[in-house]
Amino acid sequence: MSFKINDIRPEGLMEAKKAFLEEDKEFLRSRKTQFVRVKCPACKSSERDVWGEKEGFIYDICHNCNTVYMNPRAPEELMNKFYRQSKNYEFWNRYIFPASEKIRKEKIFKPRAKKVVDYCKKNNLKGSSLLEIGSGFGTFCESIKEYNFFKEIIAVEPTPHLAETCRKRGFKVYELPVEQLELSKESIEVIVNFEVIEHLFNPDLFIEYCIKYLKINGLFICTCPNIESLGPLVLREKAKVIDHEHINYFNPASLSYLLEKKGLEILEVSTPGELDLELLKEALQEDLTLQKYNPFFTYLIFSSNNNIFDDFQNFLKRNNLSSHMWILARKR
Cα(169)–Cα(228) distance, rounded to whole angstroms? Predict the structure, then answer.
């Protein structure tokens, strides 16, 4: 069934969501002859093994730092075209984000904004300017604005429909990748990017430009999936986080190495995720074969003893084995 963005009825939202997502995947799969091979996006090693394959996309694992990455992958120009034409992103901007924004703001973006402000105060920053790369629907920019901490908030969002939404919210928006910006050198106090770096063809270059724009002692705050977390370690390519848009899967050590290599000082690395066991439970419920080959985790997750469940989630957090990774770094 084909869908038109403007003519979707409420009862057809789920079908449309699946259809647009599949269109995005097919856009990339049909252009695999244009894909190129790359070295590890963290350490640049060419020593690798195949880690897995999902829906026609192949992922390697680096022998040196255990980063997992799509290889071969769409070149940067093709990825930029992919995001510009994406019906799936247009669909989310039109239907999903507005419908879910209130709860997402309370559960995700307000706590995220508070954490950023707390980092700034702890590091004696004055709140002159914040640049969010990958602003999406603009909910974080709006959440951080409510703290009245930053004098200037700038959004970078290359996807046209999302960029327009950010503009309508009153933010200054650059509809370009960060590598194409023309900002003054060392003009930004804080650069944040949430779930962005895993999408980038060249994260190395991305970080170079972020450092160029950051003031001395400015903060670089990044979140992304942690490939050395429970889900991928147990489920591998069957984990939901493995998808056609995520082409770099760092771990705490490899992402720290990449940032330090570019001259940033690592201040904090954490994996404060909360949904790891719930996501694994869903996967085990959907696939009985996974239960058969993972009896320990099946017992753990379906145990009636809530203390076991809670204690294990806390163990994952303490040892940086949760799925959602935060990294805080400073420019020296």
Answer: 37
2-39 per-position pLDDT tens digit: 566 666 777 678 888 899 999 999 999 999 999 999 99
Letter for the amino acid at 332? R
Q: Are the beta carbons of 92 and 55 closer than 8 angstroms?
A: no
pTM: 0.92
The 3-class secondary structure across 152-203, one letter per residue, is EEEEECCCHHHHHHHHHCCCEEECCCHHHCCCCCCCEEEEEEECCHHHCCCH
Q: Are residues 144 and 118 in contact, defined by beta-carbon separation less than 8 angstroms?
A: no
| Eight-class DSSP state of 213 | H
CA 211 to chain centre: 19
CB within 8 Å of 225: residues ≥ 6 apart: 195, 198, 232, 241, 246, 249, 250, 323, 324, 325
Alpha carbon separation from 252 to 65, 185, 223, 332 (Å, rounded): 10, 28, 11, 21
Site of tokens 């093709």: 78
How far apart (Å, rounded) are the C-alpha atoms in residues 27 and 74?
A: 11
Separation between Cα atoms, residue 105 and residue 194, nearest integer Å: 14
pLDDT tens across 48-79, in order? 999 999 999 999 999 999 999 999 999 999 99
Residues of 253-287 as b/e, b for ≥16 C-beta within 10 angstroms?
ebbbbbbeebebebeebbbebeebbebbbebbeee
The secondary structure of 132-153 as a DSSP string is EES-TTSHHHHHHHTTT--SEE
Instruction: Report the alpha-carbon distance of residue 264 to residue 255 in Å, rounded.
Output: 11
Please list the residues that pair with 269 across neighbouring strands: 327
**Cis peptide leading into residue 72 (ω within 30°):** yes
End-to-end CA distance of the chain: 54
